[in-house]
Design a protein that fits this description.
With about 90 residues, the protein is mostly helical. The longest helix is centred in the C-terminal third of the chain and has 14 residues. The chain is globular. The termini are far apart. The model has no long low-confidence stretch (mean pLDDT about 90).
Length: about 90
């Protein structure tokens, strides 16, 4: 999921990002990939939204539901924090 999201980001014109610990960071090993969170940083999120316009609140709700079903607790917590900021 993380590698696919990373590569899809490239398809939308987003290059590697040095901002924190997110999916658009480049990695050289599986352990590095596992370390990164399965989400885009706020800068990459803005880049993506400028390429394809979408409802960020709807996106976050769908991500929250996905993370909950997949038991991805760290990402779920972060999605909930993001939702609290947009509501």
């Amino acid at each position: 999921m993380k590698i696919s999201s990373h590569e899809i980001g490239h398809m939308f014109g987003i290059s590697h990002c040095l901002n924190a610990n997110f999916m658009m960071n480049g990695t050289n090993s599986l352990s590095e990939t596992d370390y990164h969170l399965a989400r885009a940083c706020s800068l990459c999120q803005r880049k993506l939204n400028s390429s394809i316009h979408y409802d960020n609140k709807k996106r976050l709700l769908e991500l929250k539901n996905f993370f909950e079903k997949q038991h991805l607790n760290t990402e779920l917590t972060l999605a909930n924090q993001d939702l609290n900021l947009v509501q």
